[in-house]
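pinging the channel bc i need a second pair of eyes. not urgent but kinda urgent?? the chain im working w is below, pasted from the shared doc
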Amino acid sequence: MSTLLEDVTTPWYSSLFFFPPLQKDLGAWSPWGHFLRRRQQIDNLIYAEISQRRQANDLSCTDILSLLMSARDDNGQQMTDIELRDQLVSLLLLGYETTSFVLGWAFYLIHSAPQVLNKLKQELDTLGEAPNQK
């Protein structure tokens, strides 16, 4: 996963996604073919994990995949394997950058406004100690 992320963030490699004529599978050694094969390997791993989790049906797990698998829509339907895969890939490849970016700006803005920082500290003080902090 990390090597795929490194590849797709380089300017040359990422240009493949913007220019469809470059998206030619010329075998494993071509950039697009390499990407397709690596993506298939990742998909295989994710689908195997989803299948294993569905068979185990362990409701006590609290990791993100287990939480996604326990989610239901308005009609009580759970996510399909494809939907689960899409959500996991989004979180693994995209979610951490946007989250860290937003958190960085949020902390900057909170610390730039003393009245906001003080109000936040007051609100946090009313919550008490976290159970694992005792």
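so Residues 2-96 form one domain. and DSSP finds six helices and no strands in the chain. — does that match what u expected or am i reading it wrong
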